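tool=predict chain=A
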Amino acid sequence: MMLCDHYYALDFDGVICDSAIETGISGWKAAVSLWPDLPAQMPEHILSMFRQVRPAMETGYEAILICRALYNGTPVEQLLEFFADTMQQMLSESDCDITQLKTVFAAIRDHWISDDFDGWLANNPLYPGIKELLLSIPQQQLFIVTTKQERFVSAILSANGITLDDRHIFGLEKQLRKPLILQQLQAFCQPKPLIFVEDRVNTLYEVIEDGTLNTVQLGLAVWGYNTPKDRQMAQQHCRVRILAKPEDIILS
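tool=predict ok
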């Protein structure tokens, strides 16, 4: 398969960047600001468990509630199996609303970036092989489709020597669900095919259910934030290609 024959739309967290450590630490710092009974430093075993729960998380502020739940002794398995219910319970117990949690989480992360950018960056490493892959794809054929803020995407890519036009980054600011973004990209890319790579199975199924996106080729990045159950679910659909390593993205 020739690179010039395809366009690529890649998710960011869980496909390009392993942000779980930074997200966990930011969530813990935010939790400490809300619940002073928590120790100032995130315990290693909590960070390890946070990594296991990360596949269930959809939005950054949820890291605060996950950290609190884990510290309270909620088992990883319970969080994975009953994530939405547990998050709602933790939200009720927090005496905060979602807007407040988002504000606190964003402020903690922004302070970390302004105070120690190198430290923040070190906790947002690219997955092995990803940098080489991104540099091998012509810039005009590469798009980032993510729920992460675009400024964070640009900062991490730039720090790794990867330059991408801002118009090719579709982040949180766009306020659009990924299928809608893919509809726009599909129209732009025609007649060449578009490959969309994601680490969340539910997102891939949203694309599958959208009848206007039948020609978009789909890949699940198993190195990202998904579980064996997720991968088994993905294998049940013929449109999803299981990608074991980044270079598989460009292999037919």
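DSSP finds twelve helices and six strands in the chain. The two ends are 6 Å apart (CA to CA).
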